[in-house]
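Translate structure to sequence.
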């Protein structure tokens, strides 16, 4: 229907109802004396244009009746109230007295007719949509609150696919048995399987904003067992005022946990107005540190990385305001020294590291060169430049390490703790497990294999890993750094470890396939350096902080002369490319029983090395 035709119909509807309300009010309450009736009717006719103008002013002719809402109802109340006042003013100006009861009756009838005729259109369309959608995909909605109602409307308005919403489930017992927007609340999640069977449900829509990832994982698993689809309605975006759209559940939804007890004021005090250097700034963690640190108004962030394209992409994303981009290698003493002397950073986040376990097993020289000598180089330059705080990004693979990658990161932790004893800089480390979707992680690999039709390859049926979302991990890194005094290894609570095989099955299901049926899962065996399960703690842990998700590993203080002697030997072996000796020396240094733990006076660490990296070949 053309807009002007629709407008004419609505306008005519209002005029007819206004006259009807006028005569009905006169009939119900009692008309004026016969001598006044004609004059009253003439004045009422003259006030009609003013009333219609008022209706237009309050948007009664602009709002789509299909989306009539509570705010629209308030507009109707205001428009009809002031419209009634116009009529009263018209009578009063002509010295005609009309009883209060009559005008109140007229106003109430106007609300019922003007508003009712509009909302009747919406409810008719909803009923009609529900009627013709009855043969569509049968949907159960979990959550009978505001988001559940929003999910219901989206399902009814969906044009590409037909949906037939059947009922609600909700954890609020007081809602059980009630009817909301024409649908009954049948119970809570305990009745999920029963409701699916009784009502032949084909899809579940989760419409609860604060649902934890662990709870969502259980729901998805139960849906998968019943062979029904599961979708989610994300939380409201109040700042953007965007109506959230339903989408398929993603792995990040399953991993997300409850809001943490973060102290933003402490992080702001730590970062605001500071000059911050981030090494490995184009990696998953490094780039997120840059993004989140920007929110706390630092004086300047220096993004340092050896990836030219990575820095280019980061600059395209974040621009140049409060950020400068620096290309270089953490193992190059001259470059790092020049950077720190020129810009005098106050805080250093050292996220530059090689991390792919099988690749580093094939290239142990490169692992030690980058992860150990690179760390030592940045630490020594930070010490000489008067950096206030140095934060090493570590990994759960540093706990009882089997791989050269894990051993190199454990050795970096030992360096941080022992260097802290002789420096005015506060050196600390933050240790956590895998971040979801980072470069080289298992999730992008699984997604690619699923898109190709499989098989999905998993190393071992019992292999487990800790996973955390990148933004959650970095929030805790910044929080830990804000409370660090120096010498700590902060360990982040990663939740429960996840079985890789089960993660593969969940990914296959979330992408609309059936694991072991549409997509096969093959077990290939552990790769060099890999463990069946990872740990976050050494034996000597733990000490709690005021934050439930952050604990501290006690200091591992070693006899410095012995440590420095082994470091020198390791340097020589690295320069000569002696792989066997590199493994042996590294293993010796990360074994606690190899060196006596003592309390020493502050010692001076030798200057950082600056040697050309040896030639690396892939075995």
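Result:
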């Amino acid at each position: 229907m053309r807009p002007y035709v629709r407008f004419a119909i609505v306008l005519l509807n209002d005029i007819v109802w206004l006259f009807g309300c006028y005569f009905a009010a006169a009939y119900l309450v009692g008309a004026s004396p016969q001598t006044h009736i004609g004059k009253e009717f003439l004045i009422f006719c003259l006030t009609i244009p003013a009333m219609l103008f008022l209706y237009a002013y309050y948007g009664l002719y602009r709002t789509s009746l299909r989306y009539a809402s509570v705010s629209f109802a308030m507009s109707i109340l205001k428009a009809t109230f002031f419209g009634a006042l116009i009529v009263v003013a018209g009578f009063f100006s002509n010295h005609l007295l009309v009883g209060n009861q009559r005008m109140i009756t007229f106003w109430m009838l106007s609300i019922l007719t003007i508003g009712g005729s509009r909302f009747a259109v919406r409810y008719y369309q909803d009923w009609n949509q529900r009627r013709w959608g009855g043969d569509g995909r049968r949907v159960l909605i979990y959550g009978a609150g505001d988001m559940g109602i929003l999910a219901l409307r989206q399902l009814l308005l969906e044009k590409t696919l037909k949906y037939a919403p059947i009922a609600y489930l909700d954890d609020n017992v007081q809602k059980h048995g009630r009817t909301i927007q024409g649908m009954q609340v049948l119970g809570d999640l305990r009745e999920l399987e029963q409701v699916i069977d009784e009502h032949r449900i084909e899809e579940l829509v989760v419409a609860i904003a604060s649902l934890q990832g662990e709870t969502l994982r259980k729901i998805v698993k139960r849906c998968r067992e019943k062979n029904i689809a599961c979708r989610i309605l994300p939380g409201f975006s109040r700042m953007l005022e965007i109506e959230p759209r339903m989408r398929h559940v993603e792995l990040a939804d399953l991993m997300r946990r409850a809001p943490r007890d973060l102290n933003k004021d402490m992080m702001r005090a730590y970062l605001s107005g500071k000059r911050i250097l981030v090494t490995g700034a184009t990696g998953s963690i490094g780039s997120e540190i840059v993004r989140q640190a920007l929110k706390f108004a630092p004086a300047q962030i220096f993004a340092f990385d050896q990836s030219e394209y990575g820095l280019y992409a980061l600059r395209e994303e974040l621009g140049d305001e409060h950020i400068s981009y620096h290309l270089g290698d953490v193992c190059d003493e001259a470059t790092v020294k020049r950077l720190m002397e020129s810009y005098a950073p106050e805080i250093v986040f050292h996220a530059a590291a090689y991390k792919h376990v099988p690749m580093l097993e094939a290239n142990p020289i490169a692992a030690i060169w980058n992860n150990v000598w690179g760390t030592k180089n940045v630490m020594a330059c930070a010490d000489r430049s008067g950096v206030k705080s140095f934060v090493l990004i570590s990994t759960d693979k540093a706990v009882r390490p089997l791989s050269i990658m894990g051993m190199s990161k454990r050795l970096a932790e030992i360096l941080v703790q022992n260097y802290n004893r002789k420096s005015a800089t506060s050196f600390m480390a933050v240790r956590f497990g895998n971040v979801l979707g980072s470069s080289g992680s298992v999730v992008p690999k699984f997604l690619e294999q699923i898109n190709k039709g499989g098989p999905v390859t998993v190393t071992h049926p019992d292999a487990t890993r800790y996973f955390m979302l990148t933004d959650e991990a970095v929030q805790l890194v910044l929080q830990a750094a804000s409370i660090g005094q120096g010498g700590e290894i902060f360990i982040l609570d990663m939740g429960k470890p996840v079985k890789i095989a089960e993660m593969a099955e969940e990914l296959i299901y979330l992408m609309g396939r059936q694991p072991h049926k549409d997509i096969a899962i093959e077990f290939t065996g552990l790769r060099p350096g890999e463990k069946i399960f990872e740990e976050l703690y050494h034996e000597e842990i733990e000490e709690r902080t005021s934050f439930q998700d952050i604990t501290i590993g006690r200091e591992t203080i070693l006899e410095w002369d012995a440590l420095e002697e082994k470091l020198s030997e390791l340097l020589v072996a690295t320069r000569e490319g002696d792989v066997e000796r590199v493994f042996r020396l590294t293993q010796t240094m990360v074994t606690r029983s190899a060196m006596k733990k003592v309390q020493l006076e502050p010692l001076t660490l030798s200057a950082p090395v600056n040697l050309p990296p040896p030639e690396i070949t892939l075995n």
